[in-house]
Amino acid sequence: MSAVAGKFDELQKLGVEVMSISVDSTFVHKIWDEEELSKMTKDGIPWPMVADGSGAIGKVYGVYDENSGVNIRGRFIIDPDGVVQAMEVMTPPVGRKISETIRQVHAFQHVRKMKGTEACPAGWEPGKPTLKPGPDLVGKVWKVWKSDE
Amino acid sequence: MSEPEVGCARPTGAVVGQSPPKGGDQSKSTEKTTEETMVQVRVGGKAPDFQAPAYFKGKFTNVKLSDYLGKWVLVCFYPGDFTFV
To answer: Looking at the predicted structure, is the pLDDT value of residue B30 above 50?
Structure first.
């Protein structure tokens, strides 16, 4: 969470609101924020820390693990129409990379702005060329795009 | 983030921007009905709506996902406070 908090200003500049959710109570969220997170980030967690005690929200998002009774790691990017554009679900021992989330936000915002006339190819970053899907591009992607990985 | 009291976190049973389906009123419906009418997440589909208690900058409050319509939202689930990753 502190890694996301470190990029919160960048997310806000992109017009992204954040919320974090675990099965911990709001009381526990408060103490975690005060005792630990506020020492790892400038002013603590700047977004609502949601309490999902029964895992009811986690269940409809497919991240609640019955065996351990917790929500595993799940990250969802939701657009202004309320549509889920991306999700990433991971088992607990591996953390997320927030820069990848931000890259995806840039890409989804770009294709939204272009109203489907452009697509962001694999590895796309802001400033890099996009693809313009259409009859002329069929079989010609190799001419306009090359993997840099 | 307005109402001061909320019982516990609960999905509304509908997607954001829609009223819960018929019979989805959880105070009246049985748990089975609730589960049957519950919307599941999928990419390209509307996000399942929910309301829940939250801690936000020193205060206890409520959040409802559909209040965020018109904005980009990043929702992050994680296993637990005070864990290490």
So the answer is: no
Flag whether residue A124 sits within 8 Å of chain B, measured between CB atoms: no
Task: List alpha helices for A1-149, DSSP H.
Answer: 2-6, 8-13, 26-32, 38-40, 56-60, 98-113, 141-144
Please tell me the distance from the alpha carbon of residue A63 to that of residue A74, in angstroms, as a whole number: 6
Distance from CA of B5 to the nearest CA of A (A): 13
Residue A80 with chain B: CB contacts under 8 Å: 69-72
Measured in angstroms, the CA of A124 and the nearest CA of chain B are apart by: 20
Average pLDDT over residues B18-40: 59
Q: What is the pLDDT of residue A37?
A: 92
Read off the pTM.
Answer: 0.86
Residues facing residue B75 across a β-bridge? A19, A76
In total, chain B counts a number of residues equal to 85
pLDDT for position B28: 46
Q: Give the count of alpha carbons within 13 A of B66, CB side only.
A: 15
